[in-house]
Amino acid sequence: MVGLNADAFREPLRRAIATAQNGLEVIRLGGLETEVDPSPFKVVDRDAMYRLRRYFPEDADQESKPPVVLVPPMMVSADVYDVTTDQGAAGILHSMGLDPWVVDFGSPDTEEGGWGRTLADHVVAISEVVDKVHALTGRDVHLSGYSQGGMFCYQAAAYRGGKNLASLITFGAPVDTLAALPLGIPAGVATRGAEFLADHVFTRLAVSGWMARTGFQLLDPAKTVRSRLDFLRQLHDRDALLPREPQRRFLALDGWVAWSGPAVAELLKQFVVHNRMMTGGFVIKDRLLTLADLTVPVLAFVGEVDDIGQPLAVRGIKRAAPRAEIYETTLRAGHFGLVVGSTAESQTWPTTGEWIRWREGLGEQPDTVFEMSYDEHADTDSGVSVSNRLIHTAASIAEVGVGVGKGLAAAATGAVRGTREISTEAVRTLPRLARLGQMQPHTTVSLGRLLAEQGRRSPAGECFLFDDRVHTYQAVNVRIDNVVRGLIVSGVRPSARVGVLMETRPSALAAVAALSRIGAVAVMLPPGGDLDSALRVVDVDIVISDPENLKSATLLAVNVLVLGGGDERELDIPDGADVTDLEAIDPDSVRLPAWFEPDPGRARELAVVLFTATDRGLEPRFITNHRWALSAYGTATAAALGAGDTVYCLAPLHHSAGLLVSVGGALAGGSRIALSRGLDSTRFASEVARYGVTVISYTWAMMQTILDDDDLELGRNHPVRLFIGSGMPVNLWKRTLHLFSPARVLEFYASTENDVILANVGGAKIGSKGRPLPGSARVELAAYDPMTGRLEEDENGFVRVCRDDEIGLLLGRPNSEGEVTSPLMRGVFQPGDSWVPTENLFRRDADGDYWLVDRKDTVVKAARGPVYTQPIIDAFGEVDDVESVVVYGIEAPESAGAPRRWDYGVDEIAVCAVSTRGHTSLSARIVTDAMAVLLPSGRPDIVHIVDDIPLGRAYRPRASDLQKLGLPAPSARSWFYDADQGTYRRLTKAVVAERFTKSDDVDDR
Length: 1005
Prior knowledge:
The protein is an alpha/beta fold. 35% of the residues lie in helices and 20% in strands. The chain is built from 30 helices and 40 strands. Strands 1-2-4-3-5-6-9-10-11 form a 9-stranded mixed sheet, sandwiched between helices. The longest helix is centred in the middle third of the chain and has 35 residues, at 403-437. The chain is elongated and about 120 Å long.
C-alpha cells in the first residue's frame, strides 16, 4: 500500500517540477530554448527603407534558380518567412530548387526616419528590390507577400507595369477590403471609422509593436486564450512544446514590429475608406495606378476560416485585375495559419514551390491550384462559410465561453445595419442642405472660397487628377494664389469681367478659381464658337487664353493674358498683339495691394457668365455665386458624392454641366476631379480604370463617341457607378445603362435664367428631367401658346396653371438669397407674386416628374398647330438602330391644300432627320410604329435618314446645317406622313410636287 501511494505522488511531483523549470525558463528567456537555428542568409543590399536578405547565399554561385522575393506586412517581422529552417518558407522553397529572398523593412522605432515612412515608400522599395534581384540573377522575379505584404506586391506590380515579374503570389491579401470586413463590421461603419482614424489619430500617433500584437490577438480572442491555456496545460511536457515553440514565440512575442503613422493613415484612406484597389486610381508617389492593367499571373492563397483576409476580400483580385490569369489555392486555415505552422509547412510552401516550378516550365500544375472564380454575393456575406467557421471555432467557443457574446454582437449588427445605411445618407446630405438653407444674400460663398476651405480641411487631400498625376488641395491653392498675383499685376480688379478662352485643362480651372478669389467675373467663352456674338452682349477688356486659343483671343480683346501649356511650349504671338505671359511673372515679386481680400464673393454677386447657343447666336446667362453654390451642393446631394468618388469631367468648363455640375459638385462633395485631354474612347477606357472613376459627367450626345467604338475595352468590373449631366438622348441613355451596368444616369435640368434645378434622381423614367432639387427655386408650368408666343390667362387675367400632362412654359420663383439676373414677371398667378420665365416648355406627369418638350424658339409652327421636337426625338430613341435625331421646321410653300396662317407667322413643315448606327436603313413600318406613340398632330411631316448629324461644341445634335438644305430629296430613305392612312410612306417626286411644292398660280398677297 505504501508503494502504491509513493507512485501516486511521484508523477504529480515530476510534473510540478518540470512545470516550474520550464516556466522559469519562459519567464527568464521569453520562451523555451529550442536549439533550432534559422536559415542562413546574407544581407546583399541596404537602404533607408529595407535590408534585402538572400537566403542560402553559398548557393548563389551555383546554377541559376528561379528567384522568389518574400514581402512581410508592415506590422510583422521579416522572420515570419524563416521561423525554422525545416518549417519556414525560406528553407522549404530552397529545398525545392528555388532562390528565396526576403525584404526586411525593420522596425520604424529603430530605423532612422522610420516614423515618417509612408505606404508609398514601402511600395517603391519593393519595386526597387525587384530591379536589384533581377539585375543580380538575370531572371524575372516571383513576387510574393503575406497579408498587407501581398497588397504591397499588387501595388508594386501596378507601379512598375509588371516589368520583370514572372508571377505574383499572395497569402490572405485582401483586395476588395469592403466586401468582407473582420468581425462582420458593416462597410459604412468601417469606412467612417477608418477615415476618422486616418485623419485624426494616425496623423499624430504611431502603432508600437506591442499594440500591433495586442490588436491582432483581440481580433480572435478565443483562439488567443485557447492557445495560452494549451501552452500552460503542456508546460510540464517540454518535448510536446518544443516543435511548436518557435511558432508560439514568434506570434506571442518576437514577430511584431511597429507601424509608422503616415503609412497606416494612407493605407486606411486609400484602401479601406476609398477601396481603390478595386476601383483603381490609387496613388503611389503622385502616380495614379490601377490593378486593371495587370497581366502578371497571380496565385492567391485563401484561408477558409480567415477572418482578417476574408475569402471574398481576397478573391476581389479576380474583378480588380480582369486581364490577368488569376489562380487560387484554398486552405482550411486562419490568417496566421497560412504562413506559419503545420498547414503552412505541409501545404502553403510546397504548393508555392510547385507553382513557381510550373510557371518556370520545370513541373506540372499543382493539383491544389485552380482558376479563381468570383461570384456575386450579398452585402452581409464574407466568404467564410458557416460550416467552416463552426468546425474551426467550436472548441474555442466551448472552452472560453464567448459564444453568447459573439451571437449577441452578430444580432446587434444585423439589427442596426438598416438604420446605419439610412443614416449614412442623412449624415452626408443634411449639412449640404443646411448650408444652402442658411445662405443669405450677403453670405460669402464662391468657387475660390470652397477650394480654400477644402485646402484648410485637408491640405494633402487629392483635388484633381490630370495626365496620371495627382494635384493636392495645397498645391492647387498655391497655384491659384500665384495666378492671382499675375492677374492683379495685369490690372484685374474685383467685379471686372474677364474673358476665359481655354480648353478644359487644369490651367483653365486655375484661371476661373483665381478670378473668383479676386472677386472678378469669369466670362466663359466657348473655343470655336461664335465669339463675336458673345462679346457683342458682354463687354470684356481682358481675355485669359491658353496657347492653343491665343490667336483667337488676340482678335477679341486688346489685352490678352496667356496661361498654361506645360513646361515646354512656344507662344505664337501675332505681330502687334498685347500679350502677357502669366507663367513668366514671378509671384514672389508681386506685392498684393491693400484692397485685396481673398474670396470676397457674396451670394448675390455675379460669379460667372455662360453662353447658350440659340438661333440668334450665343446668348449670355448670368450666374451668381448663389446659383453656382446651389448647383454644386445640389449635385453633391443628388449624386451622393463623397471623398471616395472620382468625378470624370468630360463636360467642357464653359458649359454649365462642366463648371456648375461636375466641378461644383465634386468640390462640394469632397470628391476628386479627373480632367482629360479630350474625348477619345481609348483614352476614356484607360483613364476610367487608372483614375478609379466612379462618376462621369456628360453633355448631350457626348457618350455617343465612346459607345460607338467597337474596340472599347471596358470590363464588367468597371468602377463607374453614375453618370451626371444634361441632355442625354433616350437611345443613348439606354445604351449607356446596358454597357456600364449597374451604373445609373442622373439627368439634370439646370436653368441658367434662375435657380431652377430639376434632377431625375431615381432614374426609372428614362428621358425625364425629374423633380426640383431641395433648396432650388419653386417651379410652375404656365399655360402657353407657342404659336403666338403668349401666356394663356384665366377669366381674372392671371396666367393659367397647367394641368397634368399639359404643355406649358417653365417658370421659377426667385429666391431672396440671390440677385435676379433675368427679366422678372409679377402678378403671374396671384397678386404680387414674382416669377422668372425660362426658355423651355415642359409637361408634368401625374407623379410630379417633369419632361422637357421643347424650347420656345424651336417649336415647329405647322399649319395644323405646334409640333414639339423633343417627343419626336424621344420616340425615335426607342428604335434600336437609331443613333441620333434632330427635328426642325422649314418654310412651307403655298399649295391648294394647305391654307396659310398669316395671323402668327409662316407655316412650317416638320422634318425629322435620323442617323443610324452602321448606316443601316429603316423601313416605313418601323417609322410608323415609332411615331404611333404620338398624336397625329404631333408627328413630323417628313422623316429622312442622313449619313451624319453634326454635333456642336457641347455635343448637342445640331439641326441648323440640315435646315439650310431645305426640303429633303425624295429617296428610298425618306418618308412622308399620310394623315388619311395614319402611316408613313415613301417620299417620291410626285408626292413632293403634290404636297410640298409651291403652286405657280398662288395669288400674290
